[in-house]
Amino acid sequence: MSIEPGVLYIVATPIGNLGDITHRALEVLAGVARVAAEDTRHSRRLLAHYGIDKPLISLHEHNERARLQRILEALQTGEAVALISDAGTPLISDPGFPLVRAVRERGFKVVPVPGPSSLLAALCASGLPTDRFVFEGFLPAKAAARRQRLLELREESRTLVLFESSHRITATLAELASIFGNERQAVVARELTKLYEEIHGDTLGQLCTWLAADGNRQRGEFVVVVAGAPPRSDSTVPLETRRLLAALLEELSPSQAAAVAARVSGVKKKILYQLALDLQNS
Fold it and tell me: Whole-model pTM?
């Protein structure tokens, strides 16, 4: 294939199994002038595996904005640049958004080269509904903020997909079970496409037990897929109103929060008051 000058290519790379890279991705990486990479040491080894030697530009969360001008100048001179992350599809819980936005604003072309994605791999193997889903990425690291975010998501009816690290997976599953309920169905996908890949589904309560039973299950990189909330008697309350109510409860009593939310949303205060009590007691 021919590489277009002055184009930023967004190239997906394997999430574990090196055989998952596409022919097109290899052609693009071999044809561009340089590669912007999250970790240049990791990416240099990856490219070397495929026999590709290209100048690398470091682009990670701490230097991304500082690197923008350098990449824009390369595109301006007619160079084609590829953006890759450490694994999978760039920008999905990885750096790249400010760069892509700046490149498009300057009038340069951005071309996606799709491929591996742990998000989609876990979702399609989960056995949970895939027609409508919500991707939350990594939950907040601090416990209070993480719990608040899960409270906001508790009534989400679409399948929920999360990323999690090995040192927080136990706490996250426990909080999911506490807030969503022990009986909510979920799937833990660990080390996808790698030697010790595991995809295990059960209720959230049983998944906590399963994870604790073997320390090896707490290692690696995780994707957690959670079934959407079942219909409730108060399901007429829109999700945004629920989120508003949860936020108001941080500062107000259930009665006060329900009154404010009722004025804003038009939902009956009686319904919101009961929902407020449920949220406060969860």
Answer: 0.81
